[in-house]
Amino acid sequence: MKLHKLIFGTSVLLLLGYTIFLAIKFPSIEEIIPIHYSSEGTDGFGSKLFLWLEVGINVIILFFIGLVIWYPQKAFGETADYLETSRENAIKNRQIILSVLSLIIVLILCGVSLKQIL
């Protein structure tokens, strides 16, 4: 299995696990949750439905990153001025970077709201 597929698959599985966990815990979450923080602490509140907005944004971001990972020929063009020794190496490196980026995005977006769920 290619490394970028493993990393991207991990980010998708983490998001799926987070979504299932949120669906299970959703009825027990308070109706009003903090949604904005400043240096003085919480200064913005909103509905618990904002938690689903995070999931939706995460899905959209992963979808577009996934398109670039799965169809790199359309995303990276045919130019021959890559820093790597070959076009294949250049595409492979960019796929790995994008899959790591997708993992970081999932961890940040899911981790931010985990405090309200627990």
UniProtKB/TrEMBL annotation:
The keyword Transmembrane helix applies. Keywords: Membrane, Transmembrane, Transmembrane helix. The keyword Transmembrane applies. The chain crosses the membrane at residues 49-71, 96-114. This is DUF1648 domain-containing protein. It comes from Chryseobacterium camelliae.
